[in-house]
Amino acid sequence: MISSLRGRVLSVGLDHAVVEVGGVGFAVQATPSTLATLRRGEEITLATAMVVREDSLTLFGFPDADGRDLFNQLLTVSGIGPRLALAMLAVLEPDKLRTALAGGEISVLTQVPGIGRKGAERLVIELRDKVGRPAVTDGGPVGPDTEQVRAQVGEALLGLGFPAKQAEQAVATVLADSPGLDTSAVLRRALALLGRKR
């Protein structure tokens, strides 16, 4: 199995990136927040999970081993395939997802498109004791640089094909409502906002 990739980013699409490793381009499926951090031509390292089907071999990429491990745990639940597991990680940060699973927070889990109440209950029953709670760090987190977040999210939205003006307005709205969010959280909320307008 391929558990990580280190190489140069050849291209970034809506739902995947192509990473060149030793002259071979690997297509890697990933969440929008992960894709937003990738730049064409940059050297990157991704933790990966390989899903083998009769007719395909698909690589899923994550910024770190924590995301990959949680993805693999989600796949052990009946009815949860790789696309739905990736959608869960796109909507909920790994720490938030762990907290929801460990605390039985059904309403948080049902925010994910494709997860109904029964599916959320099954996730909680099967994973509550396996995922553990996220680690609590000493001292509060340092807030991200708003201008840097604004620029990164704006660039990611442009890369996903949204018009510049719409992208700027969505980012501004999210930051006005919830200042201090990190890049991935702002991107998720901006995408949700833009999705409602389409």
TrEMBL record:
Its main location: cytoplasm. Gene3D superfamilies: 5' to 3' exonuclease, C-terminal subdomain, DNA helicase RuvA subunit, C-terminal domain, Nucleic acid-binding proteins. SMART domains: HhH1 (SM00278). Transmembrane segments: none annotated. It is found in: Cytoplasm. The keyword Hydrolase applies. GO terms for molecular function: ATP binding; four-way junction DNA binding; four-way junction helicase activity. It comes from the Bacteria. Keywords: ATP-binding, Cytoplasm, DNA damage, DNA recombination, DNA repair, DNA-binding, Helicase, Hydrolase, Nucleotide-binding. InterPro entries: DNA_helicase_Holl-junc_RuvA_I, Hlx-hairpin-Hlx_DNA-bd_motif, NA-bd_OB-fold, RuvA, RuvA_2-like, RuvA_C, RuvA_C_sf. The RuvA-RuvB-RuvC complex processes Holliday junction (HJ) DNA during genetic recombination and DNA repair, while the RuvA-RuvB complex plays an important role in the rescue of blocked DNA replication forks via replication fork reversal (RFR). RuvA specifically binds to HJ cruciform DNA, conferring on it an open structure. The RuvB hexamer acts as an ATP-dependent pump, pulling dsDNA into and through the RuvAB complex. HJ branch migration allows RuvC to scan DNA until it finds its consensus sequence, where it cleaves and resolves the cruciform DNA. Homotetramer. Forms an RuvA(8)-RuvB(12)-Holliday junction (HJ) complex. HJ DNA is sandwiched between 2 RuvA tetramers; dsDNA enters through RuvA and exits via RuvB. An RuvB hexamer assembles on each DNA strand where it exits the tetramer. Each RuvB hexamer is contacted by two RuvA subunits (via domain III) on 2 adjacent RuvB subunits; this complex drives branch migration. In the full resolvosome a probable DNA-RuvA(4)-RuvB(12)-RuvC(2) complex forms which resolves the HJ. Has three domains with a flexible linker between the domains II and III and assumes an 'L' shape. Domain III is highly mobile and contacts RuvB. Belongs to the RuvA family. This is Holliday junction branch migration complex subunit RuvA. It comes from Goodfellowiella coeruleoviolacea. The lineage of its organism: Bacteria, Bacillati, Actinomycetota, Actinomycetes, Pseudonocardiales. The gene is ruvA.
